[in-house]
């Protein structure tokens, strides 16, 4: 992704911060990783759709990316994916 950003002329350096404004934090001690995976997935999708640069230039990613309900559903999707991978391997 970094190569794509640089090709488009966005200058990223070691001090660049991507802000996910308005995204809810987990309300427990175990969903942090799920939040991170979900936001990374959404950023990859946005890059594929040519929208990530626009979001970064505006200073953040859409708030709707990180509602508690969406992330909770994503956690279930990830769990189901892991279960299906384990079951298909046995």
TrEMBL record:
It comes from the Eukaryota. SUPFAM superfamilies: Cysteine proteinases. This is Ubiquitin-like protease family profile domain-containing protein. The lineage of its organism: Eukaryota, Viridiplantae, Streptophyta, Embryophyta, Marchantiophyta.
């Amino acid at each position: 992704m970094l190569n794509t950003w640089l090709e488009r002329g966005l200058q990223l350096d070691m001090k660049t911060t991507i802000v996910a404004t308005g995204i809810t934090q987990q309300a427990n001690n175990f969903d942090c990783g799920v939040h991170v995976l979900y936001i990374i997935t959404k950023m990859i999708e946005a890059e594929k759709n040519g929208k990530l640069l626009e979001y970064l230039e505006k200073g953040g990613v859409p708030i709707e990316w990180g509602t508690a309900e969406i992330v909770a559903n994503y956690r279930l999707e990830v769990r189901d994916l892991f279960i299906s991978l384990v079951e298909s391997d046995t």
